[in-house]
Amino acid sequence: MSIIEAIIIAIVEGLTEFLPVSSTGHMIITQSLLGIESNEFIKAFTVIIQFGAILSVIVLYWNRFFRFKDDKPRQEHDNFLKFILYKYEFYWKLLIGFIPAAFLGLLFSDKIDELLESVTVVAIMLVIGGILMLFVDKLFNHPVEGEQEITYKNAFIIGFYQCIAMIPGVSRSMATIVGGMTRGLNRKNAAEFSFFLAVPTMAAATGWKVYKLITSETGFELLKDNIGILILGNIVAFIVALLAIKFFIGFVTKYGFKVFGWYRIIVGGIILILMFAGHELTV
Question: Core-most of 30, 146, 165, 208, by most CB within 10 Å?
Fold first, then answer.
């Protein structure tokens, strides 16, 4: 992989990670269009640069990630456990939302890697998800103003929606946003919780991919030889994701998801037409 190719893929990651259009799907498509042959490092690269994107969430929502509840002093709680659960409630909810993906991700790790090589699966899922996006606002729109409280139960349920995105082309963002809206969240709060839940999920995915890479026969050498490209990819993904998140929150709050639905249908449809016409798109 050249530096230019790494930058292009990182830009695609940053632009699409938090939009309901499937960043993994777009990176697979981009890789195919650039003629980059899939190998152990390329697969790892597309996962590891997601770390740069999640850092953008922490930077933009710094006060949410490091704002602890302190309106009730320690002595007002029956025991220390209740105090810890109350004070760090935000983190506990993210942990509960992360559990389904952690369990199923480990269970189906090899199968997920196989699907990451299928442009056909990406195209089909883009179209199906796009059709769903056309009706999300009408079916689940909740015009509630202000910040909404997310219960532990809802965090867990949204975590299961996130697991659907293990299929390339579905979009982790789309799955969790739709999951949040089905639980009564408005567009803005559903999107923001999707961003927050991305942090532990993608950090774990990155860590797992790095672990698998360095414990494979040639992985450690690949990582060492390409560390510069990985750092560059994360920096580019971080900067682009900062801009994409700001745009997305403002846009979706005002206009909804229909435009993303049409985008998914058009992109997925074009890919399927090209493939049926005999153009080979593989990774």
Answer: 165
